[in-house]
Design a protein that fits this description.
- The chain has seven helices and two strands; from the N terminus they run H-H-E-E-H-H-H-H-H.
- It is mainly alpha-helical.
- The protein is flat.
- The model has no long low-confidence stretch (mean pLDDT 78).
Amino acid sequence: MKAQMFGSWASRQKWAGVQNFGPSRSSGFGWDPTTKKFTAPEEVWKDYFKLAIPKFDGHYDHWSMLMENFLRSKEYWGLVENRIPATAGEADLTEGQRKTVKDQKLKDLKTKNYLFQAIDRSILETIMNKDT
């Protein structure tokens, strides 16, 4: 009976009383009937698959695991573990080393930005006022 009732995609749509399943046209997604796959520009896919920043909800152990995984997926966890290596002076560095340090500083700023977004302001103020 199921095969008769839902024999084709068109009959499923008719049975459900809708003309279009899936993402709406305003979302940026489309449908390619030849390949039978969703299509979208690259920026739409990037927005669709964006990782949500884990919000701190008072359960530190759980949040820290989520945050570590998030930062590892962004390839920023190395900065958390190792920090940016101290340099004696920029004048002594080669161009490649300067670029590496600059890239690490940018990643450090992005990591801090993620942390600031993850922690509520009142909790962040409490953390900032602690001596240890």
